[in-house]
Structures are given as structure tokens and as C-alpha cells.
Amino acid sequence: LQAPSRRWQLSVQRLSLSLLVLQNSVLVMVMHHSRNAPTNSQPRYLASTAVLLVEVIKLLASLALATHDTCRSHPSASLSAVAIHLYHSVFARDSWKLIVPAALYTLQNSLVYTAISNLDAVTFQVTYQLKILTTVLFSILLLGRSITLRQWLALILLTLGVALVQVSGTLTSDDWLERLSSLIRGGTLPTSSAFKGLMAVVAASLTSGLTCVYFEKLVKDSMGSVSLWTRNVQLSFFSLFPALFIGVLWQDGAAIARNGFFAGYNPVVWLTIGLQALGGLIVAVCITYADNVAKNFAASLSIVVSYAATAIIFRTPLTLHATGGAAVVLLAMYLFNGRPAPRMVLLPVNQDG
Ligand code: C5P
Fold first, then answer.
1. Given this model, what pLDDT does residue 165 score?
2. Is 242 close to ligand 1, i.e. is its CB under 6 Å away?
3. Running DSSP on this structure, what letter comes out for residue 350?
């Protein structure tokens, strides 16, 4: 496979990070709504079925993109030759390496559903920012990256800035602290539910950091020989097994037999599934053309963007907290990169240009 030019890489990098900001801005709200809106006595849809469908959609999309890549690099090949080529690259000898990230991502995707079903959107989004720190830690441990004191400071500022924007969205910080401590003490929500949600989001953050870093290493180590979309076909293919056998059949088999696979599905659920599948594909591009830290910065920036959009659309006044929080997030990006544009990239080593 031909290595793409540096300029093309930078364009893909910027586009994918911007798309991730947009996708993230709407996903959490839509997903929260899909889990928590009243269902008119219908059973709520099962998260395991959504996790499986997201993987099926990503598998089909990645397969289409991998086919497109193969046709482009072998323009005179027949359709059957392309199919054979794809089969051999997907089931290549090193494809087993995707089994671990596939299992971990499936677990993470289920944990996110558990978290979002048991916590309010604010608490979920703030706590899920923990993945910024876990990603950096695993990048240091597994990729041997180093991080300067200034960048550590930037990460702490980023976490604080996001928390500030978030808490001012619906609550004041005093309300929020009170709410969090009462959550931990089991006040506003039943203890088991809140505790379950918090544990789920902490576990999802850990899984996110570990899995993204592992996937980044895998893709960048084999860049030039295995395409990103082939890797994604492998990832989704291996994800189908835990999603189907552990999630759908083992965990929810009885409920599905009783109410059907699509019980509780409505347009919002389908929108959640579509947005998640799209998000997975965008994340794959961000990890490859930028890196995981950049991906998480984009996710944090989306919190600022969704807050600003809400303020503009619903004409809610901007609070001091939120504006200060947004400024802190931008300052963190500046400190991390040395300049404000999203330049927090570590391009793969074997590139031209
Ligand atoms: O929150 P985080 O950024 O870790 O979420 C990553 C999401 O992207 C997961 O839902 C995962 O399934 C998806 N993903 C993907 N393909 C990749 C990497 C991640 O679908 N190559």
C-alpha cells in the first residue's frame, strides 16, 4: 500500500477530529435520551442488542471501505480476485491480535450503556473525561511516549475546564458537588444504581485508555502493509462474538426470547446506534491519522461546543463558570501543543513528505 502524502494526512487528521467534535456533541444527549425517556409501558431496548448492531454496521461499512481501497490499489483485478485478496488480508496470520481489543471494546461499549443508564448526562460526561488521563498513562507505559511537565499541567487544566463547563450547563458547582457526594452516599439516586453507574464509567475509562493505545500501536506498527479498514473489519468481526454470545444470548437471551430482539426500538434508538457506529469509524481515523490524546482532546472540546450550541439555540445566558471553563479548555489545548490549532499529533514514523 502506498503511504499517503503528509498534506493529505493533515487534512484527514483535521477533518476527522472536527467530525469527532460534532459526533460527540450530539451522541451523549441522544444516547441518554434513548435510555431514560419514558417508553409508554414498552420495555426499554436492550443495550446488548444495540452493541451488536453497532458492530454489524461498522463491519459492513469497514468491509465496503476495505473493498474500495483494494479496488483502488489493484485497478485491473476482477471482483473475485478482490474478494480473495480481502479474505486473505482479513484472516491474515496476525489477525488474532485484534481479539483482545475487540473483547475490550465490546466490554467498554456495554459499560458506557450501564453508566449512562444509571447516571445523569452531566456526571457521566465529567467522569468519562478520566479517559484522558488513562490514555496518557497507557501511552507512556505501552508506547514509550514521554510527556513534559507543561503537558501534564495541560491535562489537569483540561479536566478542570471540562468539569467547569459541564457543571454550569444545568447546575451550579455547589449543586454539582452536593449531588456527586450525595450520589456517592446514595442520596438522590438509589445507591446501587448510582454506584453501579460510577463504577461502570470508571471501568469504561480504564478500558478506553488501554484499548485505544493498543489499537494505535497495532495500526501504526503495520501501517503501509495492512490498511486501517482491514484492521477495522478484523476488529468488528471479532467483536461480534462477545457481543452476540455474551451480551445478547447469555446476558439477555431470556428477555429477547420473551419480548423479541427489537423490543423498545424507536427512531431515537436507531439514531443512537447510527451515531455510535459513525463515531467508531471516526475514532478509527483519528487514532490512525492523529493519535489517542488528540482524539480525547476533540471529545473534550465537544463538551464546550455542545454547551455553546445549547446557549445559542435555546438562548440560555452564558454563565461565568462555562465561559471560564471553555477558556481553560482552550488554554489547555494551547499548552499541550505549543499552539492552539489541533497539532497534538505524532505521525506514524514511516511516512513520506
Ligand atoms: O470513548 P472512546 O474514544 O474510547 O471510544 C472509542 C469507540 O470507538 C468505541 O465505541 C469503539 O468501539 C470504537 N472504535 C471503533 N473502531 C476503532 C477504534 C474504536 O469502532 N478502530
1. 74
2. no
3. S
User: Which residue's CA lies nearest to atom 8 of ligand 1?
Assistant: 280
How many residues in the chain?
Answer: 353
pLDDT (tens digit, 9 = 90+) per residue, 87-146? 999 999 899 999 999 999 999 999 999 998 888 776 787 788 889 889 999 999 998 888
φ, ψ of residue 186 in degrees (nearest 5): 90, 30
Q: What is the DSSP letter of 95?
A: G
The residues, ordered by sequence, that sit 6+ positions from 330 with a Cβ below 8 Å of its Cβ are 304, 340
**Phi, psi of 345, deg, nearest 5:** -110, 145
Q: Is 138 exposed, middle or buried (0-12, 13-18, 19+ CB in 10 A)?
A: buried
Q: Give the number of the atom of ligand 1 that is nearest the alpha carbon of residue 109.
A: 10
User: For residue 299, which atom of ligand 1 is closest to its CA?
Assistant: 3
Residue with cell 446501587: 192
Degrees to nearest 5, angle at CA 338 with 332 and 343: 90
* Global model pTM greater than 0.90: no
- CB of 293 sitting under 6 A from ligand 1: no
The grid coordinates of residue 17 equal: 477530529
91 residue type, one letter: F
**How remote is the CA of residue 170 from the centroid of ligand 1, in Å?**
28
**CA-to-CA distance for 246 and 335, rounded, in angstroms?**
43
Query: pLDDT digits over 228-248, tens only?
Result: 999 999 999 999 999 999 999
Distance of alpha carbon 137 from alpha carbon 151, whole angstroms: 13
C-alpha cell at 131: 479517559
pLDDT tens track for 34-85: 887 776 777 899 999 999 999 999 999 999 999 999 998 888 889 999 999 9
Q: Is 128 in the pocket of ligand 1 (CB under 6 A)?
A: no
